[in-house]
Specification:
- With 278 residues, the protein is of the alpha+beta class.
- Helices cover 37% and strands 13% of the residues.
- It contains nine helices and seven strands, in the order H-H-H-H-H-H-E-E-H-H-E-E-E-E-E-H.
- It has a five-stranded antiparallel sheet, with no helix packed on it.
C-alpha cells in the first residue's frame, strides 16, 4: 500500500501521532537513564528475608562455591564469612560482586541486582560476628614491622617479594582472627600456587621455594630470590613437597604481642589501590 498504514489519515493527524510517539520515546529513554543512574541501596533490601536468603543460597552454590567453598570459608577465593567482621559494608560488597575485582579471578557478576542482593543476604547468614574490644594498634609501626618481617615474601601495592601471596587487599578478605592464626602458625596449609617445594640437584644444590607448576615429568619453582626455575624430575636427585606452609610461624619470641597488634592494624588498612573502598 503506497502510503503505509496511516495513508488514509490527514497529514495533521499523522504529525500529531508521530509527535506523540517521539514524546513517548523520550519519556521511555529518560526513565531508562534515571534507572541506570540510580545509586545502589546502602543496605541490603533483603536483609533478614528468609525466602530471599533461600534463593541466594541456590545462586551462591551455582556461581560462587567453586572458589569460595560451599560453606563460604574460602578455597581459591577468600573466606566470605569474615568480610563483614573486617569492616566491609553491604553497599561496598554489592559493588564488588557486580563489578568484579580487576586483576583477580573474581569476575563481574551475571544476573540482576536483586539476585546479587539475595546472594549477599544468604552469605550474611553465614557471617562471623564482628569482634568487639579489639585493641586499636599503631598502624604506622605495623607498616615498619611489615617491612622488616613480611615484605621479603609478600607484596603490597606493587612493592615487596613474590614468594607469598599479594596482600594488597588483605584488609578486605581476611578478618583479624584468621590473620592471627596464620601469622602465629596455627594454620600450616597453603593456597594454590604457594605449595612449598625443595629441589635437590644432582650436584647436591638445594633449591627451596614454592611450586608454580608441576606434573609427573617436571616442576617449576619460584625460589627464595623470586626467580622462576624449571627442572626435569629425571635430572634432579629429589623433589620434596613438605605438607606444611612455606611461611614460618611468628611466635612470641619472634613477634611480640604489641608488634603483632600493630601489624594487624596495618594489614586492616590494605584494601587495594583505593583504600577508601568500603
Amino acid at each position: 500500500m503506497r502510503g503505509g498504514l496511516d495513508s488514509g489519515r490527514p497529514k495533521s493527524m499523522r504529525i500529531t501521532i508521530a509527535g506523540t510517539l517521539m514524546a513517548g520515546g523520550l519519556i521511555v529513554c529518560s526513565l531508562t537513564i534515571v534507572r541506570a543512574q540510580a545509586p545502589a541501596p546502602t543496605t541490603n533490601p533483603f536483609a533478614g528475608n528468609a525466602e530471599a536468603a533461600q534463593t541466594g543460597m541456590g545462586l551462591f552454590r551455582a556461581r560462587c562455591a567453586d572458589c569460595h567453598g560451599m560453606d563460604a570459608r574460602g578455597v581459591r577465593g577468600p573466606d566470605l564469612t569474615q568480610v563483614w567482621a573486617s569492616g566491609r559494608s553491604d553497599e561496598g560488597l554489592f559493588r564488588t560482586v557486580r563489578q568484579g575485582v580487576p586483576g583477580t579471578e573474581m569476575p563481574a557478576a551475571r544476573g540482576t541486582d536483586d539476585e546479587i542482593w539475595k546472594l549477599l543476604a544468604y552469605v550474611k547468614t553465614l557471617a562471623s560476628p564482628v569482634a568487639t574490644g579489639v585493641p586499636a594498634g599503631n598502624a604506622e609501626n605495623g607498616a615498619r614491622v611489615f617491612g622488616a618481617q613480611c615484605a621479603g615474601c609478600h607484596r603490597v601495592n606493587g612493592r615487596g617479594g613474590r614468594l607469598g601471596p599479594d596482600l594488597s587487599r588483605v584488609g578486605l578478605s581476611r578478618a583479624r582472627a584468621a590473620l592471627v592464626r596464620r601469622i602465629r602458625g596455627a594454620e600450616e596449609d597453603w593456597i594454590d600456587g604457594y605449595e612449598p617445594v625443595t629441589v635437590t640437584t644432582k650436584n647436591g644444590q638445594t633449591v627451596r621455594g614454592v611450586k608454580k607448576n608441576g606434573d609427573l615429568f617436571s616442576v617449576q619453582v619460584m625460589d627464595t630470590r623470586d626467580r622462576i626455575q624449571g627442572y626435569n624430575r629425571a635430572d634432579v636427585q629429589t623433589v620434596a613437597e613438605p605438607k606444611q606452609s612455606a611461611m614460618p610461624p611468628f611466635d612470641i619470641t619472634r613477634l611480640s604481642e604489641n608488634d603483632l597488634n600493630d601489624l594487624l592494624s596495618y594489614l586492616s588498612t590494605l584494601r587495594g589501590f583505593d583504600p577508601s573502598v568500603k
